[in-house]
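ugh finaly. both done.
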Amino acid sequence: MRYFYKTGLAAAAVIAVSFISDAAVAQGVDGLHKLPPVAVTQETLTQKPNDSFILIPCDDQTGIAAFWSGDNFIIVADRIGLSLDGIRKISGPFTDQSIVTLDHATLIRFHLPSHPELSIRRDSRGWQLVVGHASSKSGLMPVVRPGALEFPLAQPGHVVSFPDPATGARLLMMTSRAASGGVTVPFSGPGYRVRASLEGVVVIADADCLIFSLSHAGGVLSSAQSTRLPVGGALVFHANNTAQNQDLIFQGLQNTTPQNLKNRQKEAADKAGQSSGQEKPSLLFDAVRAALAAGDLPAAQELLSQAQKSGAEAVINSPQNLALSGVVALLSGKVKDAEILADTRWIGMPDMTLWRAFYGLQAGKKSWETLPDLADNISKIKQYPDALRDLILPSVAAAIIRYGTNGEVKQLGNLPDTPVYALARGLILMREKKGDAARVIFDQMASSSSGGVASVGHVMQIRLRQVLGHAYSDEIVQDYISLQKDEDEAGIAPASSRQILYLGLSSALMQLRQYRSAMMMLSFLLPGPEIPQDILEQAYRELIRKMIFEKLDLIKHTTKLTSAQKNQISDTVALSGQNLPFLTDGPEKAEILMGYGQLLMALDNVSRAQHIFSQAMVLFPAPEQRSQAKELMARAALLQGMTDEAGQLLESMPAQFLSPALAARKTYDLALLAKKKGKADQALALLAHDETDEGLDLRGQLYEASYRWPDAVLVIGRLATRKLPQSGALTDAQQSLAARLTADAVSAHDTDTLQRLKNFLSGRTMGHEADLLLERQFKGAMIRPPSH
């Protein structure tokens, strides 16, 4: 091993410096462990004539949720664009504040360790946070409904979710656009805890399947798996005989022969047609059911139209017939007209679970919101008449096989051996990696006389080879493009197959690093039964992650970026930044934001990077993850000369949650902060045991600035030992390091180091002028005394 510095020198003394007080550590995670106090009521507050308050100006459409999180009071606004410059500070304890703008919400934090009595007011200017004044509202009392809790917000806003700043628990928040008084008394149930709030509703979601929905009466908390984890009151069964899998819409429906169903359809239609009294609307709806049972959608649509024109509002708007109207629209492919099935009135009714979930599937809702309930209702679907069953089960089965769990796939059981289930059978084989058997089915579909079936078959032939890795990505891309061109020319491009084509093409283009083209393919996609919302988001997330971290890896392995490389990084920053809002706020997005921010740092966009790191810090649930974001925020603040802010960020990183690597980075940042404040000795003490490249470089700077040349030679020599190659040409950065060590050694009159460096560089050039300069320095060092 070569060395360019003298060994055996005594190491500098280490001065232990701690910026985390015992009191702060005792407070727990991020110093915010204290439970929020129960919100006070009107009677317990003392009104004062000159109370302090702060105005948050906004329009009347901006809703908020406001609550305590440890020693911080948090206001979450469901609008972006609010800024500290727009917050008018009147007086009082609100000086310690910060604001973070997420993609879809704004978080305002007030550090109030004394926990003063607070209330929220709404006026024409915006929202006011007041010390000492009570709200005129009595607070929200949830209405317990079957399978749900309904919070009667007069003007509900939006659902916002991110980790609790104090505990990291997942929060679901429903904002309010009008003063409601918040939830005054906290309570809990299986999988959730409702917190006290001064405005809006704040729920700690311990279970992943909880959903907050908007209703005409406010906000509704329910479970995506209503029969497994019900929220609220007992479930209500409306069917007469649930054991026979009957339901609200098709009470009394039994499977029988197609001819019998046709006969019943004709009898019901004739009876409705011959009637002219008050019973006619009800008979028309009965005829609609009979037509659906026979699989005759056109007849069902025509009969439904007649029923809805009858003017019998009581009959038309009965729960059973409203649901039936939604089912007819849904099975006819008119998803927007079937929105009634998403209404929160059906929550808690197990006999409507199938139709709510089937609507969610067709509307492209997240797969985890729909597939569990659909899998639980497979037996009900199979007991429907075959014609009705075949309008539902094929798409349900395909979605479960594509995106469901193994348990959900098992619930499918045996599928009917008819052509409409060919895709599902092929998907099962593909999922089981039985490529040859799956290929036979897709080949048969591709040769179908039905243009739609053939299109799906052709797409799945390519998709099969792609998933099983039986072709290179460039071949897959060419196959997809050729198929797309052929179908466009033939005028055959079913939406279902085209969605899968674009998704597969995007994946293949991503593998070829053609990121802009891959992103373009994703932009053509809309959530639907083939690609639920969470699956589409996953495709965006994978693509953005790959783009960002590929460039981040380039930066980490490149000493100096070329102009072309900077342009590539700029393009990545622009493309990924445009699509980050598609990602749901949470830990996975926070990790991507950390990489995105570091790309911005590499482009010297430090201010924007600091903002991105602040977003990541909010979205991370774990203390160490938040500390990682804070460290990068502090680094960005230091680069902007914001020493006070950097110091506060570093102090807020609890030592007990730092990994050795993160603790070392924090120490380095503290040393850099001390250097910027002119405290060289403190900085050197902090760096005494830092042997990283950054640490040695900074120590060298400090020694050079203090004319401590022998010490500079010691640390820069160790850096050169690590960075300079034994042979081959030197990069620009390596040449600069060699020149730096030479200058330090000349100033220290360290002839031994100079000679070793000269021998090491022998036969290698750093350019004619640099070689001459180094040669003169070598010679001059032999006759000059050390510099001081």
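ok and the 2nd:
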Amino acid sequence: MAKQLTFFSNKFRVTRRTGYAHENHMHHRIVHQLSCGISILSSTIALHVIVGVLVCTLAAITPTMTWSATLDGLEQAIMPESFEKQSRTVKLISYLVDKSYFRKVPLDNRFSEKVLNRFIDKLDPAKSFFLQEDIDRFETIKYEFDDYIKRGALEPVYAIFKVFRKRVNQRIEYALQRLEQSFDFTLNEQFLLDTQQSAWAQSEQSLNDYWRKRIKNDIINLRLAKKSGADPDNNDSDDINKTLRNRYAHIARRTRQFNADDVFQSFINAYVTTIEPHASYYSLRGAENFKIHMRLSLEGIGAVLQTDNEYTLVRRIIPGGPADIADQLKSGDRIIGVGQENEDIVDVIGWRLDDVVDLIRGPKGSTVKLDILPGEYGLEGKPETIIILRDKIKLEEQAAKKRLLKVETEQSQSTIGVIDLPSFYSDFDGKSVSDPNYRSTTKDVRKLLIELKDESIDGLIIDLRGNGGGALTEAISLTGLFFRKGPVVQVQNSNGRIQIDQDPDPDIVYDGPLVVLVDRHSASASEILAGAIQDYKRGLIVGEPTFGKGTVQNLVSLNRFVNTEEDLGQLKVTIAQFFRINGDSTQHRGVIPDIIWHTAERETDSGERAYENAIPWRQIDKASFVPFQLSLDAQVLNQTLSRHFSRVKSDPEFAYVLEVNKINKLNRERKFTTLNQDKRRENRKQRDLERLTLENKKRKALGQSTFETVELLDAEQDSRDEDAENENFIDQGHDAFLVESGKILTDFVYYKNLSKDNSPKTVVDTKLVNQNLLDSIEPINN
């Protein structure tokens, strides 16, 4: 039966009668989940959960409570029928976080304020609905949320959500009325694109003005996109008005459809992500979505999505998935529309993420149409429509592959073997039943290495670009193919215990020259391999600083701790942290390559560094290990780096990437956009011309034909996208970064052979050498 609470003063008063629960302590067999979603490494972890968790009934963990709650100025809040279950759940989560979580954060007033702010931000990230007076009222209880969590008091949460729902209805009512009025598109006024650092609206009039500009901006975007045949100069276009009416009405409808589980999940996620960004709570529907992602079996597009204000942002493309194969959707793109095979595209700006995902999913073999804003152009970019064939993630597309790279430098020629490794995979089911044909990364790479050695390669590149991780056991055993038995990674659990994982196989499959190629998307298991290769001085790490994902998450069903038929949901918690054998964590900082591309963007808003509350980098004691016999000496490395930087200074493709990165950075950092339609159109033309000029400059330097217009350039790209969808198409495009990696390896081998008869080598800190040479080209921000 629903409970109704009346709010009439400025404080919540809590009256409670406390029951008792016994203490318990037990160990659990945990299956860890790493960042890419593959089950790995069964090990015994102690969960010290004391007082009221591991008991026989829900009643035993929950003291009987009666509540009287008040908050000045807030209307009556109808508590859901699931309120008591949610109250028990939040207390259970609080215990689990306190007793078994890797990061220990005190549940105090400071933390309480952060939880409130994050919950408000989850409800209204663009500051489009709440007024400053609402925030002021909420802040009267900003130091109380630690107590509410401990007691399972959720009345304030529903009171805040009720205010939010009221404000949404008010704003959408205004927007729909204002949409029917005229706008002056010749005024030189601006619209704020990034409201994260802006103040809350002080009055309803101020918020009305924000929404007037927002509507005007939406109309200009649709005009310039020429959606549905709309006249770009017609303010009263029926198509545009219909699109925006549906968009705004959906925001209100979506908010009305928020049920108790949605509100509860939003608040709990505000709570746990205040601790650190990888924690999550999943209600029944959310848990099913997470399981689908973990199994990599979604018949969709194969992309990890997240909400970014009112947009659906592509966080990561899953290797081997339809989006990866089609090569049209990129990390950083925003999905603004979704359409089925023979239906119109539906505008999804302002939609809930799970509703967008539901639209994208569909039968295997069917197509889905997506309207996207390319990430490199920011929110002012021209929308593009792409078509992707739905399918499951294919293991064969994730599997390791080999190829040969013929390299010629000023000093030498060589044949370089390349192993592309999109993920660290393993057929756990096949392995568990001793199936001799089960697939795994280590088995496949071992076979490829033997084949490449038979082809007399002069060196090897392991390409980990875009590899988001996978099975820890595979990262350990694969690393062991390149040196004899020894430690590979250290894992510290929430109790401070450190486990050193060893390579159990003393055999070396390949002992020749080695480069590991990484980028900002190389994460988790990829960083373990790259870090170990660097620590053993087994090879050179080349590319960009990696993602910095050095923690282990575990998905825990809350039902396992109680005896009830109710579904309490699941909690994803961080239970351990990775450390390299030299004692450095891969967390936050990632792996810094020995040779960093001078095109690498020195930003703090990528990878783990983008999270304001990410677990920081730290060190522990190094493990006992013996470096590989092929130490890196200063003279050889200096000569290799000198030749590398000499080449890339004049390389047209590297110059092109550097210029594009600078332009993209400016686009992403743009805070305002003009609401003068003619100026907006001219700005877009200027950006298209800039893009055409850069492309033609590169093509001319490479001896390729140039394009006369942007339209011809786009048509050529569309043609390549269509070819990429054909599974028989082999892209013969020039990968400048891979080729340069081959040249680096070739030079390294050449100079090393020259130095064999010289004086004893001096082992060098490659980070310092790399920094000094890189500083001569462009300042680097460490």
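summary for the 2nd one i guess: The chain is about 40% helix and 20% strand.
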